[in-house]
Every structure is written in structure tokens, then in C-alpha cells.
Amino acid sequence: MRFIVTAGPTREPIDPVRYLSNRSSGKMGYAIAEAALAEGHSVILISGPVSLIPPSGANLVQVTTSDEMDDAVHAHLAACDVLVMCAAVADYKPATFSTRKIKKQKNALTLELIPTRDILASLTRPSPEFLVVGFAAETDDLEANAQKKLRDKKCDIVVANDVSGNESGMESDENEVTIFFRNGEKEKISRAPKKIIARALVKILSNACEKRLTKKT
Ligand code: C5P
Prior knowledge:
alpha/beta, eight-stranded mixed β-sheet, two-stranded antiparallel ribbon, 4 helices, 26% helix, binds cytidine-5'-monophosphate
């Protein structure tokens, strides 16, 4: 199977030396890419700026901003069977980019932010069998928010993790996820190293993808 995995944060530039970003380390996405390769799948890994070594065998596409990530996903979509949107894409970006470094001033500074393009929500599937997997990092109402994301972003699967504590989620080497399917089913993977979670997740995703592809023939 042909996977596209997005990973890491995006950076939204404010001026030549500043940007808006988030705490995503990219570890979960890189672990998914590695696990998919180990299962014999091909992987295009679209990565924001992270300090990780990409798994060998992955076709690495490095991006910085959410717009670049959107372009890269669209450029590779048609050649794949499953998109795993693990990246923590910024939801907002500065309305304008200052070509000069913004000078410090005594008064408060207001930065106007505008929504970024939502890659998942604006996606056109290259085929009906194509599997779309979103991630939800939530600090509260995990299930309700994941169900909403399934509907609003037209995902087949949403992988939700609770990022309210320090032990799981962003930056950590461990995670604990619940996988929500469109038919209402859900499956929990208990707390484990991200590499172990990734292996279980890839099995679940390739089974779901396989079912769709065989239905077609
Ligand atoms: O809305 P929220 O950012 O919580 O949604 C998370 C999911 O949506 C993730 O799968 C993320 O990769 C994706 N996303 C996106 N485009 C954005 C923001 C998030 O595809 N601009």
C-alpha cells in the first residue's frame, strides 16, 4: 500500500526572524512512517521542521509552512492509497508578513491572525477507496471532539490522543490513543512507546485500506 504521512509542526512566519508554531516533535508521524515501511508499504513522509532522522526508505518531503504542507499533500495525493494527517498544522497564521524585523516598542503589540487552509477539510479524494486519517490532540472532551472531527473533516478514521498531561501526546516518547471509525466503532491502544502504538495503528489502517481496495475489485 502507498502511504502519505504528515508529521511535525508547521511554522507560520511573522517577520524574518520570528514565527508561530507548536510543540509537536514529529515523533508519532515518524514512528508511523517507520512502521509502515517495516510492513512493506511505500511511504511519502511530508515533514515540518523537526530534529529527527527520517526512517530509511521513506520519500522525505520537507516543508515549513502550512501552505507548503497543503501544496505537498495535494502534489502527492493521487499516487497514494492512504493519507495519515499526523502533522500538527497551525490553525492560524499572521495576516501579514513583515519583511523587516518588527522593532520592540513600549506599547502592547497586536498581531492579527487569520485561519490557515484546512488541509483535511478541503481535500478532494483521488478515489472513493482512498483512506483519510485525521488526528485529534485534545485537552478536553476527547470523544466528542474526535466525533466532530470525523464529520467536519470527512475523515474515515480519527486517531485521538489526550494532550492534557505530560506523559502522553506531544513531545513525549509515549502515547495512548483511541481510534474512532466512521461506522461508530472505536478501538483503544493503551499507553505504550510511540513506536509500538505506530505498529498497531499501521496494522489497523492497512486492514481498513485493504478492505476498501478489495471491495472495489
Ligand atoms: O482542527 P484540528 O487542528 O484540531 O485538527 C487536527 C487534524 O486536522 C490533524 O489531522 C491535522 O493534521 C489536520 N489539520 C489540517 N489542516 C489544518 C489544521 C489541521 O489538515 N490547517
